Amino acid sequence: MTTQKEKVIPEKYIPDVDSYIETIDGKDYLITNDAMYTFYRRTKGEFSPFFLGLRDEKKLLGCKCTKCGLVRVPPFLTHCPDCNFTPTEPVEVEQVGIMNSTPPITYFATSLFQHMAPYGRGRVIFKGTDTAMSVILYTTTGILVPGIIKKGTEVKLVFRDNRIGEMTDVFCVPTAELAKEQIEKKGLQESEINWESPVEPELPRASDADVAVYEGALAEMRSIISEMDANERARKDIAGWKRDIQVKTRGGQFAVIIDDGDIKLEERDLTSPDFIVVSEDPRTLLDGLAYRGAITDSVINKKLWISKNMEFNTIFKLDRMARSVARSKKA
Ligand SMILES: [Zn+2]
Fold this sequence. Notes:
Elements: E1 19-24, E2 27-32, H1 48-57, E3 61-65, E4 71-72, E5 79-80, E6 86-92, E7 96-99, E8 105-106, E9 119-126, E10 133-137, E11 154-159, E12 170-174, H2 180-184, H3 208-229, H4 232-237, E13 242-249, E14 252-259, E15 262-266, E16 275-278, H5 282-289, H6 295-300, E17 305-306, H7 312-330
Parallel strand pairs: 13-16
Antiparallel strand pairs: 1-2, 3-4, 3-6, 5-6, 7-9, 7-11, 8-9, 9-10, 11-12, 13-14, 14-15, 16-17
The structure holds zinc ion.
Protein backbone atom coordinates (compact mmCIF):
# COMPACT_ATOMS: atom_id res chain seq x y z
CA MET A 1 0.00 0.00 0.00
CA THR A 2 1.36 3.43 -0.90
CA THR A 3 1.35 6.06 1.81
CA GLN A 4 2.59 8.81 -0.50
CA LYS A 5 -0.02 10.20 -2.88
CA GLU A 6 0.56 9.29 -6.50
CA LYS A 7 0.94 12.11 -9.00
CA VAL A 8 -1.28 12.45 -12.07
CA ILE A 9 1.90 12.35 -14.18
CA PRO A 10 4.20 9.62 -12.81
CA GLU A 11 7.70 10.80 -11.87
CA LYS A 12 9.35 8.60 -14.53
CA TYR A 13 7.62 10.48 -17.36
CA ILE A 14 8.97 13.84 -16.26
CA PRO A 15 12.24 14.57 -18.13
CA ASP A 16 15.27 16.05 -16.41
CA VAL A 17 16.25 19.68 -17.00
CA ASP A 18 18.80 18.90 -19.70
CA SER A 19 19.94 19.55 -23.26
CA TYR A 20 21.54 17.41 -25.92
CA ILE A 21 22.84 17.59 -29.48
CA GLU A 22 21.16 15.93 -32.41
CA THR A 23 23.12 15.71 -35.65
CA ILE A 24 21.12 15.99 -38.85
CA ASP A 25 22.91 15.93 -42.21
CA GLY A 26 26.24 16.58 -40.54
CA LYS A 27 25.08 19.65 -38.62
CA ASP A 28 24.68 19.82 -34.85
CA TYR A 29 21.45 21.13 -33.37
CA LEU A 30 20.92 21.82 -29.70
CA ILE A 31 17.73 20.45 -28.15
CA THR A 32 16.51 21.23 -24.63
CA ASN A 33 13.83 19.55 -22.58
CA ASP A 34 10.91 21.83 -21.91
CA ALA A 35 7.42 21.50 -20.47
CA MET A 36 3.84 22.36 -21.18
CA TYR A 37 1.32 21.79 -18.41
CA THR A 38 -2.22 20.61 -19.03
CA PHE A 39 -4.35 19.16 -16.27
CA TYR A 40 -8.08 18.90 -16.11
CA ARG A 41 -10.82 17.85 -13.77
CA ARG A 42 -13.65 15.66 -14.90
CA THR A 43 -17.05 15.25 -13.31
CA LYS A 44 -18.88 11.95 -13.03
CA GLY A 45 -22.06 13.97 -13.33
CA GLU A 46 -25.25 11.97 -12.77
CA PHE A 47 -23.13 8.83 -12.22
CA SER A 48 -21.66 10.38 -9.07
CA PRO A 49 -23.84 8.30 -6.67
CA PHE A 50 -22.59 5.07 -8.32
CA PHE A 51 -18.92 6.05 -8.00
CA LEU A 52 -19.43 7.47 -4.48
CA GLY A 53 -21.04 4.13 -3.58
CA LEU A 54 -17.85 2.36 -4.69
CA ARG A 55 -15.52 4.83 -3.02
CA ASP A 56 -17.19 5.56 0.32
CA GLU A 57 -19.67 2.81 1.07
CA LYS A 58 -18.29 -0.21 -0.81
CA LYS A 59 -21.72 -0.59 -2.38
CA LEU A 60 -22.59 -1.62 -5.91
CA LEU A 61 -25.51 0.43 -7.20
CA GLY A 62 -27.79 -0.24 -10.12
CA CYS A 63 -30.97 1.34 -11.35
CA LYS A 64 -34.36 -0.34 -11.45
CA CYS A 65 -37.10 0.65 -13.87
CA THR A 66 -40.18 1.55 -11.82
CA LYS A 67 -42.40 0.03 -14.53
CA CYS A 68 -40.76 -3.12 -15.99
CA GLY A 69 -38.44 -3.77 -13.03
CA LEU A 70 -35.34 -4.28 -15.18
CA VAL A 71 -32.16 -3.78 -13.09
CA ARG A 72 -29.22 -2.25 -14.92
CA VAL A 73 -25.67 -2.23 -13.51
CA PRO A 74 -23.89 0.13 -13.73
CA PRO A 75 -26.86 2.52 -13.61
CA PHE A 76 -26.18 4.14 -16.96
CA LEU A 77 -29.78 5.28 -17.49
CA THR A 78 -32.04 7.51 -15.45
CA HIS A 79 -35.07 6.63 -17.60
CA CYS A 80 -35.98 3.25 -19.12
CA PRO A 81 -35.94 3.29 -22.93
CA ASP A 82 -38.11 0.12 -22.98
CA CYS A 83 -40.93 1.78 -21.02
CA ASN A 84 -41.42 5.09 -22.76
CA PHE A 85 -38.74 6.66 -20.54
CA THR A 86 -40.27 5.83 -17.19
CA PRO A 87 -37.88 7.01 -14.41
CA THR A 88 -35.58 4.42 -12.83
CA GLU A 89 -34.72 4.29 -9.13
CA PRO A 90 -31.34 3.50 -7.56
CA VAL A 91 -31.02 0.04 -5.99
CA GLU A 92 -28.14 -1.68 -4.27
CA VAL A 93 -27.28 -5.03 -5.87
CA GLU A 94 -25.39 -8.14 -4.77
CA GLN A 95 -21.63 -8.38 -5.13
CA VAL A 96 -21.50 -11.93 -6.48
CA GLY A 97 -22.15 -12.69 -10.12
CA ILE A 98 -21.55 -14.97 -13.07
CA MET A 99 -19.17 -14.36 -15.99
CA ASN A 100 -21.23 -14.07 -19.15
CA SER A 101 -18.19 -14.61 -21.38
CA THR A 102 -14.68 -16.00 -21.11
CA PRO A 103 -12.41 -13.03 -20.40
CA PRO A 104 -9.36 -12.35 -22.54
CA ILE A 105 -6.19 -11.79 -20.49
CA THR A 106 -3.93 -8.79 -21.03
CA TYR A 107 -0.27 -9.55 -20.34
CA PHE A 108 1.35 -6.63 -22.13
CA ALA A 109 -0.69 -3.52 -21.40
CA THR A 110 -0.04 0.08 -22.37
CA SER A 111 2.06 2.06 -19.90
CA LEU A 112 -1.16 3.33 -18.31
CA PHE A 113 -2.22 -0.18 -17.26
CA GLN A 114 1.06 -2.11 -17.13
CA HIS A 115 1.18 -1.91 -13.31
CA MET A 116 -2.09 -3.87 -13.23
CA ALA A 117 -1.10 -6.61 -15.69
CA PRO A 118 -1.71 -9.44 -16.16
CA TYR A 119 -5.43 -9.00 -15.77
CA GLY A 120 -8.56 -10.40 -17.34
CA ARG A 121 -11.33 -8.20 -18.60
CA GLY A 122 -14.84 -9.53 -18.93
CA ARG A 123 -18.49 -8.99 -18.24
CA VAL A 124 -20.31 -10.13 -15.12
CA ILE A 125 -24.02 -10.42 -14.45
CA PHE A 126 -24.40 -9.75 -10.73
CA LYS A 127 -27.16 -11.67 -8.91
CA GLY A 128 -30.54 -10.06 -9.36
CA THR A 129 -29.44 -7.83 -12.23
CA ASP A 130 -30.30 -7.94 -15.92
CA THR A 131 -27.26 -6.38 -17.56
CA ALA A 132 -23.56 -7.25 -17.54
CA MET A 133 -20.92 -5.01 -15.99
CA SER A 134 -17.40 -4.86 -17.37
CA VAL A 135 -14.80 -5.73 -14.72
CA ILE A 136 -11.10 -6.41 -14.24
CA LEU A 137 -10.35 -9.98 -13.12
CA TYR A 138 -7.60 -11.51 -11.00
CA THR A 139 -6.80 -14.81 -9.36
CA THR A 140 -5.34 -15.42 -5.91
CA THR A 141 -3.67 -18.65 -7.07
CA GLY A 142 -0.58 -17.05 -8.60
CA ILE A 143 -0.30 -15.97 -12.20
CA LEU A 144 -3.53 -15.43 -14.15
CA VAL A 145 -3.50 -17.91 -17.03
CA PRO A 146 -6.25 -19.05 -19.42
CA GLY A 147 -8.70 -21.55 -17.93
CA ILE A 148 -8.97 -20.12 -14.40
CA ILE A 149 -11.91 -17.82 -15.22
CA LYS A 150 -14.36 -18.87 -17.92
CA LYS A 151 -17.88 -18.16 -19.08
CA GLY A 152 -20.12 -19.28 -16.21
CA THR A 153 -17.48 -18.89 -13.47
CA GLU A 154 -18.94 -17.36 -10.32
CA VAL A 155 -16.98 -14.29 -9.21
CA LYS A 156 -16.94 -11.91 -6.26
CA LEU A 157 -16.52 -8.15 -6.38
CA VAL A 158 -13.49 -6.97 -4.41
CA PHE A 159 -12.76 -3.37 -3.41
CA ARG A 160 -9.29 -1.85 -3.57
CA ASP A 161 -7.96 -0.49 -0.28
CA ASN A 162 -7.28 2.91 -1.87
CA ARG A 163 -10.34 4.08 -3.77
CA ILE A 164 -10.91 7.31 -5.64
CA GLY A 165 -14.27 6.65 -7.28
CA GLU A 166 -13.26 4.97 -10.56
CA MET A 167 -14.12 1.62 -12.14
CA THR A 168 -10.59 0.51 -11.23
CA ASP A 169 -11.61 0.76 -7.54
CA VAL A 170 -13.05 -2.74 -7.94
CA PHE A 171 -12.13 -6.04 -9.53
CA CYS A 172 -13.38 -9.62 -9.34
CA VAL A 173 -11.88 -12.95 -8.26
CA PRO A 174 -13.44 -16.42 -8.55
CA THR A 175 -15.59 -17.29 -5.50
CA ALA A 176 -14.03 -20.79 -5.61
CA GLU A 177 -10.85 -19.17 -4.26
CA LEU A 178 -12.57 -17.52 -1.28
CA ALA A 179 -13.95 -18.63 2.08
CA LYS A 180 -17.71 -18.60 2.70
CA GLU A 181 -17.50 -15.52 4.97
CA GLN A 182 -15.53 -13.65 2.33
CA ILE A 183 -18.09 -14.46 -0.36
CA GLU A 184 -20.94 -13.34 1.89
CA LYS A 185 -19.21 -10.18 3.10
CA LYS A 186 -20.42 -7.00 1.47
CA GLY A 187 -17.55 -4.66 0.61
CA LEU A 188 -14.75 -7.25 0.77
CA GLN A 189 -11.39 -5.48 0.45
CA GLU A 190 -8.26 -6.66 -1.33
CA SER A 191 -6.31 -6.62 1.96
CA GLU A 192 -8.77 -9.16 3.40
CA ILE A 193 -7.74 -11.69 0.77
CA ASN A 194 -4.72 -13.93 1.19
CA TRP A 195 -2.59 -13.24 -1.89
CA GLU A 196 0.53 -14.66 -0.27
CA SER A 197 -0.06 -18.40 -0.26
CA PRO A 198 -1.02 -19.57 -3.74
CA VAL A 199 -0.97 -23.31 -4.36
CA GLU A 200 2.39 -24.22 -5.80
CA PRO A 201 2.42 -26.83 -8.58
CA GLU A 202 3.85 -30.08 -7.24
CA LEU A 203 7.08 -31.31 -8.76
CA PRO A 204 7.52 -35.01 -9.49
CA ARG A 205 10.34 -36.87 -7.76
CA ALA A 206 13.66 -36.29 -9.47
CA SER A 207 15.46 -39.19 -11.09
CA ASP A 208 19.25 -39.28 -11.48
CA ALA A 209 18.75 -38.16 -15.07
CA ASP A 210 16.69 -35.15 -13.89
CA VAL A 211 19.44 -34.13 -11.49
CA ALA A 212 21.99 -34.37 -14.29
CA VAL A 213 19.80 -32.16 -16.52
CA TYR A 214 19.47 -29.69 -13.64
CA GLU A 215 23.24 -29.60 -13.02
CA GLY A 216 23.87 -28.91 -16.70
CA ALA A 217 21.19 -26.22 -16.96
CA LEU A 218 22.35 -24.61 -13.70
CA ALA A 219 25.92 -24.25 -14.98
CA GLU A 220 24.64 -22.59 -18.17
CA MET A 221 22.28 -20.28 -16.27
CA ARG A 222 25.06 -19.30 -13.88
CA SER A 223 27.25 -18.25 -16.80
CA ILE A 224 24.39 -16.38 -18.58
CA ILE A 225 23.44 -14.52 -15.41
CA SER A 226 27.01 -13.42 -14.75
CA GLU A 227 27.13 -12.25 -18.37
CA MET A 228 23.95 -10.21 -17.73
CA ASP A 229 25.49 -8.79 -14.56
CA ALA A 230 28.45 -7.49 -16.58
CA ASN A 231 26.34 -6.11 -19.43
CA GLU A 232 25.55 -2.40 -19.28
CA ARG A 233 22.30 -2.63 -21.28
CA ALA A 234 21.05 -5.56 -19.23
CA ARG A 235 21.92 -3.76 -15.98
CA LYS A 236 19.78 -0.81 -17.07
CA ASP A 237 16.80 -3.16 -17.51
CA ILE A 238 16.79 -3.82 -13.75
CA ALA A 239 17.83 -0.41 -12.50
CA GLY A 240 15.95 0.43 -9.31
CA TRP A 241 14.49 -3.11 -9.15
CA LYS A 242 15.04 -5.42 -6.15
CA ARG A 243 13.72 -8.97 -6.06
CA ASP A 244 14.76 -12.20 -4.32
CA ILE A 245 13.45 -15.03 -6.47
CA GLN A 246 13.36 -18.70 -5.48
CA VAL A 247 13.47 -20.96 -8.52
CA LYS A 248 12.28 -24.55 -8.10
CA THR A 249 12.81 -27.23 -10.72
CA ARG A 250 12.47 -31.02 -10.76
CA GLY A 251 16.19 -31.58 -10.27
CA GLY A 252 16.91 -28.90 -7.67
CA GLN A 253 16.41 -25.31 -6.63
CA PHE A 254 18.37 -22.07 -6.53
CA ALA A 255 17.93 -18.32 -6.00
CA VAL A 256 18.16 -15.38 -8.38
CA ILE A 257 18.89 -12.08 -6.65
CA ILE A 258 18.12 -8.84 -8.47
CA ASP A 259 19.43 -5.74 -6.76
CA ASP A 260 19.33 -2.41 -8.60
CA GLY A 261 21.36 -3.39 -11.67
CA ASP A 262 23.10 -6.36 -10.07
CA ILE A 263 21.90 -9.88 -10.78
CA LYS A 264 23.34 -13.09 -9.42
CA LEU A 265 22.50 -16.77 -9.13
CA GLU A 266 23.06 -18.41 -5.75
CA GLU A 267 22.59 -22.06 -4.94
CA ARG A 268 20.62 -21.67 -1.73
CA ASP A 269 17.10 -21.61 -0.31
CA LEU A 270 15.67 -18.20 0.54
CA THR A 271 13.72 -17.83 3.78
CA SER A 272 11.39 -15.13 2.44
CA PRO A 273 11.60 -14.79 -1.35
CA ASP A 274 9.61 -12.03 -3.03
CA PHE A 275 8.14 -14.67 -5.29
CA ILE A 276 8.62 -18.27 -6.41
CA VAL A 277 9.17 -19.59 -9.92
CA VAL A 278 8.38 -23.23 -10.59
CA SER A 279 9.83 -24.54 -13.83
CA GLU A 280 9.50 -28.33 -13.87
CA ASP A 281 12.12 -28.59 -16.60
CA PRO A 282 14.98 -26.18 -15.75
CA ARG A 283 15.71 -25.90 -19.47
CA THR A 284 12.48 -23.89 -19.93
CA LEU A 285 13.97 -21.07 -17.86
CA LEU A 286 17.42 -21.63 -19.37
CA ASP A 287 16.04 -21.19 -22.90
CA GLY A 288 14.44 -17.90 -21.92
CA LEU A 289 17.60 -16.55 -20.28
CA ALA A 290 19.61 -17.65 -23.32
CA TYR A 291 17.22 -15.72 -25.60
CA ARG A 292 15.86 -18.86 -27.24
CA GLY A 293 12.21 -17.91 -26.70
CA ALA A 294 10.57 -15.63 -24.17
CA ILE A 295 10.08 -16.59 -20.52
CA THR A 296 6.83 -14.60 -20.56
CA ASP A 297 5.57 -16.99 -23.27
CA SER A 298 6.41 -19.96 -21.06
CA VAL A 299 4.37 -18.38 -18.26
CA ILE A 300 1.39 -17.79 -20.55
CA ASN A 301 1.69 -21.36 -21.93
CA LYS A 302 1.74 -22.72 -18.36
CA LYS A 303 5.22 -24.25 -18.67
CA LEU A 304 6.52 -21.95 -15.97
CA TRP A 305 4.54 -20.90 -12.89
CA ILE A 306 5.04 -17.80 -10.77
CA SER A 307 3.53 -17.30 -7.32
CA LYS A 308 2.51 -13.65 -7.70
CA ASN A 309 0.52 -12.27 -10.58
CA MET A 310 2.17 -8.82 -10.45
CA GLU A 311 5.64 -10.36 -10.77
CA PHE A 312 4.95 -10.93 -14.45
CA ASN A 313 6.67 -7.53 -14.67
CA THR A 314 9.87 -9.04 -13.24
CA ILE A 315 9.68 -11.93 -15.73
CA PHE A 316 9.28 -9.33 -18.48
CA LYS A 317 12.47 -7.64 -17.22
CA LEU A 318 14.38 -10.94 -17.39
CA ASP A 319 13.28 -11.30 -21.03
CA ARG A 320 14.54 -7.79 -21.71
CA MET A 321 17.89 -8.60 -20.12
CA ALA A 322 18.22 -11.65 -22.37
CA ARG A 323 17.49 -9.46 -25.36
CA SER A 324 19.95 -6.79 -24.21
CA VAL A 325 22.76 -9.36 -23.97
CA ALA A 326 21.86 -10.74 -27.42
CA ARG A 327 21.85 -7.23 -28.93
CA SER A 328 25.21 -6.36 -27.39
CA LYS A 329 26.70 -9.43 -29.03
CA LYS A 330 25.37 -8.35 -32.42
CA ALA A 331 26.62 -4.77 -32.12
ZN1 LIG B 1 -38.65 -0.36 -18.01
